Amino acid sequence: MNASPSHIEVMRSQLGRARGLGAGGSGVGHWWAERVSAATLLPLSTWFIVQMFRLGGADHAEVVKWGGKPVNATMLAALIITTFYHAQMGLQVIVDDYVHGKAHLPARILVKIGTSLIGLLGVFAIIKLVAAGNSQKS
After folding, report:
1. Cα–Cα distances in Å, from 87 out to 30, 118, 121?
2. Does residue 60 or residue 13 have the better pLDDT?
3. Does residue 123 contact residue 81 with C-beta atoms inside 8 Å?
4. Structural domains of the chain, ranges and CATH numbers in brackets
5. Cα torsion for 96, 83, 113, 104, to the nearest 10°?
6. Whole-angstrom Cα Rg for the chain
7. pLDDT tens, residue by residue, 19-76
8. What share of the chain is helix, strand, coil (3-state, %, to 5)?
9. Where is pLDDT greater, at 69 or 8?
10. Taking a C-beta distance cutoff of 8 angstroms, is the pair 96, 61 a contact?
């Protein structure tokens, strides 16, 4: 019996033909990372909102002193990093679902670069806040 490769392909089940296509198992990791980052953002965002209410009406010097404290700076950095990581993953899903063809790869790269740069700017602002807070102490 001489079976041709096309004959073997036809005899495979639809599940057999579908295996090896798609995310290759990376989708579950992405899904979990989105959920963990969202869950992490809940307490961080709550902390930030409470702190902003506490600082309501504060002058610039008070805010700089508040931001210069290591715990506050660390929490702010965690909030910024987690926010833009979560945003990058969400935007990646949108690009994967709705951008096709030659535009797909450039769109994914643009999303990663854009969210990374904006997040980096946020972290740099926190570093400046800490430096200003430390210069007021001396």
Report:
1. 13, 11, 15
2. 60
3. yes
4. 24-137 (1.20.1300.10)
5. 10
6. 24
7. 655 555 567 888 899 999 999 999 999 999 999 999 999 999 999 999 999 999 999 9
8. 85, 0, 15
9. 69
10. no
H or E stretch including 69? none
Q: Is 58 helix (H, G, I), strand (E, B) or coil?
A: coil
pTM of the model: 0.78
How far apart are the two ends of the chain, measured CA to CA in Å? 89
Buried b (16+ CB within 10 A) or exposed e, 32-49: eebeebeebbeebeeebe
Helix (H, G, I), strand (E, B) or coil at 3: coil
Find the mean pLDDT for residues 70-90: 97
| Structure tokens, 85 | 């990581």
Return the pLDDT at 12: 59
Report yes or no: 128 and 109 within 8 Å, Cβ to Cβ.
Answer: no
In 3D space, the residue among 84, 90, 87, 76 whose CA is nearest the CA of residue 31 turns out to be: 90
